[in-house]
Amino acid sequence: MYKAYQLIRNAGLKLTPIRKEIILIFEESPRPFTPREVQNLVQKRIGRCGLPGIYRNLEALAGCGVLFRLAGFGRERFYALCREPGTDPHHHHIVCVSCGKVAHVDGCRYHEGMMLGGYRLLSHIVQFEGVCANCQENN
Amino acid sequence: MYKAYQLIRNAGLKLTPIRKEIILIFEESPRPFTPREVQNLVQKRIGRCGLPGIYRNLEALAGCGVLFRLAGFGRERFYALCREPGTDPHHHHIVCVSCGKVAHVDGCRYHEGMMLGGYRLLSHIVQFEGVCANCQENN
DNA sequence: CCTTTAAATGGAAATAGTTTCCATTTATTC
DNA sequence: GAATAAATGGAAACTATTTCCATTTAAAGG
Questions:
Q1: Nearest CA to the C1' of D26 belongs to which residue?
Q2: Interatomic CA–C1' length for residue A113 and nucleotide D12, angstroms
Q3: Closest CA–CA distance from residue B105 to any residue of chain A (Å)
C-alpha cells in the first residue's frame, strides 16, 4: 500500500502508526467497516486507541482518496478501501449483502458539469447492493 | 393528494390529521425537509406534536410510497414528496444545492435481478446534486 | 350513531453515533 | 537533536433517533 502512503503524504498528513494499521486492516478484508469496528481491530493490534482518533483518521483517509465512505440509510457509517486509488477512472461500488465484499462498477454516465433534467450537475451518489458470485453459489 | 390518501389506506394505515398535514406541507414546497423542520411546520398549523410521531410518520409515509428519503452523508435525514406516486416508472432525483428544489431524473439503467460486475443486483441508490435552471440564472 | 379495537400520539427518557475540548505525545523538517 | 505543527486519547458534550408507556383516536361493524 505504498500508493496509500503517497496519498497521505501528498495531502500534507503524517504517516502515523495508527494510519498504517487502519490501511492494513482494510487491505486484509474485502468488506467495509464501521468506525467502531476499526477501533476494535486497531486495538487488537496496537493496543488502546480512541474513537475520536478513528473518526478523524477515517475522514482524513477518505479525504485523501485512500478510503471512501459508503452511502446508505442505516444509522452507522461504513468506509471501504479504494483499491485503485489515484489511477481510478470514475466508477462506483457494489456491496455484497451476504459477505460485504466490495467490487467496482464501471461505466458511470454522469459527470460534473453535464446537464441533467435542466440542472447543471455538481455531484452524484451511486451505490449498489447485490449478491456476489461466491455467495450466489454457496446458498 | 388523493392519490397519497389511497396509498396510506392501501397500506393499512390510518389517515390522521397529522399525516394529512405532513402531506400538505410537502405538497406546498418543492424542497426536502428534515424531521425537525416538519415538526415545526406541523406545530404552526395544528399545534403541539411530538418528534417521535413525526419520525414514525415520515417512515410510514416513505414506506407506502408517499415520500422518499434522500441519500447523503450529512448528519440529518431529509424526506421529499414522490410527485407521481404509484404510477412512476423507475427514476431518481436531483436536488438543487441552492434552493433545494427536487426534480426527476429518468432513464435509470439498473434494475433488480440484473447482473452487475458479477453480482446479482438487489438494490441501488442513485442521487444527484446540481443547480436548477432558475438558480443558474439568478447568480 | 355507538361500540370495539388496533393504530397513532406525545412526553419523557434512553440510546448511540459523532464531535469537541484540551493536555500530552509524536512525526517530520531543518 | 531541537523546533513545530499535527495527531492522539479520554472525558464530556451534542444531537439525532428510538423506545416506552399511558392516553387518544380513526376506522369498521353492528
A1: B14
A2: 44
A3: 6
Report how far residue B80's alpha carbon sits from residue B34's, in angstroms, rounded to the nearest whole number.
9
pLDDT tens digit sequence for B2-44:
799 999 999 999 999 999 999 999 999 999 999 999 999 999 9
C-alpha cell, B130: 446540481
User: Which phi and psi (to 5°) does residue A93 adopt?
Assistant: -135, 150
| Chain CA centroid to CA B31, Å | 9
Q: Residue A11: enclosing H or E segment and its boundaries?
A: none
3 state DSSP class of A75: coil
Question: Do B135 and B96 meet the contact criterion of CB atoms below 8 Å apart?
Answer: yes
What homologous superfamily is domain A91-137 in, according to CATH?
Ferric-uptake regulator, C-terminal dimerisarion domain (3.30.1490.190)
Asked whether residue B37, judged by its CB, lies under 7 Å from any atom of the DNA or RNA strand D, the reply is: no
CATH of domain B2-81: 1.10.10.10
Grouping H, G, I as helix, E, B as strand and the rest as coil, residue B120 is strand
Q: Each residue of B67-94: pLDDT tens digit?
A: 999 999 999 999 999 987 655 678 999 9
What is the spatial distance, in angstroms and rounded to an integer, between the CA atom of A4 and the C1' atom of D2?
Answer: 30
> Which chain B residues touch A119 with a CB distance below 8 Å?
94, 96, 103, 128, 130-133
User: CA B83, CA B133: separation in Å to the nearest integer?
Assistant: 19
Is the C-beta atom of B16 closer than 7 angstroms to strand C?
yes
Rg (chain A; Cα; Å): 16
Q: Look up residue B54 and give its amino acid.
A: I
Which protein residue's Cα is closest to nucleotide C28 at C1'?
A14
Secondary structure element (H or E) that encloses residue A136, with its range: helix A133-137
